[in-house]
Amino acid sequence: MEDSGSVIRRRVSTRKRSRRSLRETAAAGPLEPGQEQEREEEGTDGRRRRRSESLELPEYDGSEEDMFDGYDSFAENSFLAQVDVLEQKYMQSPEHGIIEKLYSKSTETREFDVIATDSDLTEVKTRDYCNSPETLRLQENVTIEPGDDLLCDVPCSQALYIEKVKDSSNDLNNPSAKESYPLSSHQTLNDIPVEQLQEKKNSSPKHTESDLNRRRSLKDRLKSAMTGNAKAQTPKFSKRKQLKEAILSEEINVAKKTLESSSDDLGPFYSLPSKVRDLFVQYKGIKKLYDWQHTCLTLTCLQQRKNLIYSLPTSGGKTLVAEILMLQELLCRQKNVLMILPYVAIVQEKISSLSNFGIELGFFVEEYAGSKGRVPPIKRRGKKSLYIATIEKGHGLVNSLIEEGRINELGLVVVDELHMIGEGSRGAILEITLAKILYTSKTTQIIGMSATLNNVEELQEFLNAEYYTSKFRPVELKEYLKINDTIYEVDIKAEKGYTFSRLLKCKYSDHLKKMDPDHLVALVTEVIPNYSCLVFCPTKKNCENVADMICKFLNKDYLKHREKEKCDFLKNLKNVSNGSLCPVLKRTVPFGIAYHHSGLTSDERKVLEEAYATGVLCLLTCTSTLAAGVNLPARRVILRAPYIATQFLKRNQYQQMIGRAGRAGIDTVGESILILQEKDKHLVLNLVNSPLENCYSHLGQEITKGIQSLLLSLIGLKIAKNLEGIYHFMCATFFGIQQKRLSEEKSLWEICRKALASLMEKGLLQKRSVCKNEEESQCELQITKLGQASLKGTLDLAYCGTLYKDLKKGLEGLVLESYLHLIYLTTPYDMVSQCRPDWMIYLRQFDHLNSGEQKVAAIVGVSESFITKKASGQAIKKDVDRNIVNRLYLSLVLFTLLKETNVWRVSEKFNMSRGYVQNLLNGAASFCSCVLHFCEELEEFWVYRALLTELTKKLSYCVKADLVPLMEITGVLESRAKQLYDAGYKTVTHLANADPEVLIRTINHLSRRQAKQIVSSAKMLLNEKAEALQEEVEDLLRPPSDIPGTTTPSSKNHELTQ
């Protein structure tokens, strides 16, 4: 047979056998030698005749009994034919020696390996038999083409067997096998050990009736297995998919070798498989990288795994470089990756965009935001994980990895908006996180990126990093200033810093001049509705007023632009708001205009952002938070005033806002216009021409969230043991590098001493033994139980003592008639100071409480008489802790929200913005999770553990129990969960197996992009849960290494060497 030829053509014999059945043979008794020879000749003549005859299909009876009776479904050398002949010979042999010979031969030559799988699939695998003369004679017209997969012609129902047959090929030689004889419905000939047959032969010289019946049932059982196989559902067996997976695996192996070597060859796509490039095209529409991106990815420092800081203007494409580096770490170096982002909304957006990559490339994308995220993370033996976290959750994740001794599992940490290291308490937490990673892991690479960095040298020293920067912008940005009706272009080369551009041509009536003195209507109508525009306003209320005002002076032609889509959008907006609709949006949306600020719910903001991104809305009036949030670029960006609330703009903030101007791939130029008054002219000129502000550490300013929190964790995580070790660590922090500039009065040593003294005073740290003054720096410190609980709960240390007292007091009379008492204990302390109760509403809600709930108010120290006096304006003589009063008020808001699960109704009841109510809910869910971890470390609070676990779930989702599984999916909010549930998608499994096209047709106002993101996020979540369960099962079944009476392999080797 030649090596190159046509594809195998299989012959299928459908002849009716003339031989008798097994039962007939048994009834007739053994064949005489002459009869056997005569029958063999007849069979040979029959075969010759049928070689020249055309194929004739048999009639299909449809019954199980007749499906194979008398017909052979394989070729003439099929296994059933062989079995039939062997049965006949066996029945005529008094000593049955033929069976022993058969098995002896099978053991030596392995002509056939026969197996029945769990699905009752039966198949024959030919090995040495193919070289026999009989086989070569039958294969006269059969040739094999190199590269052809022999499985391509195999029935799909047999495919799974072939996959498993290799694993079972050694079963016969396994001495521990204990299969019983006769065969069960899922056993085969080769499953029977030869020794067992020999034993039965020796022990039973004369076969009994039961033995004969067992022999008779052999063929019937094989037929039964084949019948079940025919009935079994055909599994999908994609040869193409297998080929793609094989290619991907091979390319990853090549990429690993490339990264390990010093070669300049970057492989198919920057040391990544070519499939990654295809995925960027498919899911992000990115076909080619910018020159700066190529340069950055090929930097020598990255190949040497050094830390890197890179800085480019907004919209320059920084994130793509980070994503490629993360994929290299996950796929090629097989390490976990942590990505730290500033806000929850950005975390969720990134989760949605990378879930498809995780599914296609085989890694997990895990969310760490709010109350989501498992601490410590699951330790996976197979697939790696990409943790996408907010600053606070990222800090808790790193703490848990250090405590578990697993910090080296992190191969890469990516920090977006690195300049936030200089912004308040969140900046202090980010600095603490990075400092711990640098100190505890020498193998973890850190990548930081930002659009607004200035004092890079100090950041480089802190992170021990290289620096790369570029001025590249995909779209040119032109900056303008507007004073009265004159527009000037910013030009740093000009003497004044600006040059005259043009006069604003607009015909304003007296009424319009009075309503719009800044000519906003004229500025926006130059670009909308064909192009997009953002108007940044100083306050939330100003956003709504400006949107409303602009609509009043637009002509009716704007109503016709994408009219149907705007009508659909309004319906969707009403749907996500549980039937309610903001009156301002109801007026502005028909004109393609809306406002965007934190007073909206997350559902509303998400729908508005989607409508703006698709062009249904052409103008958004917004606050500065949009500039730091999701990416929503515009053709023109207008700054209503150089203020945020009452504070003058900083250069960094200004740069972030104007950076939204210009949409890559859509606009050729982007414009920013800053409206200013004559009185602010000097300040604005300094603003637009000054360099970016420096980043300064807030570790020393944020005492309880900064330096005290850091020192507590250093002792608790055993990173340092004493003051000397702490000082050594602190010298390497960003604060330590800047300390002389930030605190000239006190040395770093003195600052550390004072912080430690404060922690010991609070009962969070203690000395191991009494030390003399001269040995103070060497005296070992240890964390107390309260300190350990505070560390695990990642609490602000300013509140840990108060929380402990509140929980202790709660044990004395915990009221469990409702959730009110537990909600009070988990209401965030940091939101209490912002609360301004409406005393009439407070009294009204207090009167609606039942006796048990009013008892809660009495226990915490708020009386009805106090609220009544405040509501009536009477003087209060008795001192009452206002923090407790305000905290109970917020608790009533949360308590009402849990009962009604409708943010709109609750916000109206308490006269609060719906966005504030939702932020309160999210804050409570996060704080409740912290309190739960706090209680888990203190045995005296064991009663709270189960109660707070359930409450955390309720606060996290605040929906009916049926919707909770759907709410776990990233990007699915309450309104969408209701739609999906009503459409029959009631579980994560339903959505993971859903067709996005069917979802689009089934769910109203669902875009194709959203449908794909929901399905991919559901698949990712399902894979995570399945993998976790599988690894848990493996852990349970894995025998422990320290079983009494056994010795480990290492100990055995040690004994042998003695």
Summarize the structure.
Helix content is 50%, strand content 10%.
Number of strands: 21
| Percent helix | 40-55%
Widest sheet, order of strands: 12-11-10-19-16-13-15-14
Q: Determine the oligomeric state from the structure.
A: single chain
How many individual helices? 47
Q: List low-confidence stretches.
A: 1-77, 94-162, 164-208, 1049-1058
Distance between the first and last residues' Cα = 60 Å
Please state the average pLDDT score. 79
CATH topology of the largest domain: Sec63 N-terminal domain-like fold
Q: Please identify the structural class as seen in this structure.
A: alpha/beta
Any idea what the radius of gyration is? 38 Å
How would a textbook summarize the main sheet? 8 strands, mixed
Tell me the domain tally.
Answer: 4
Shape: globular
Broad CATH class of the largest domain? Mainly Alpha
Strand content: 5-15%
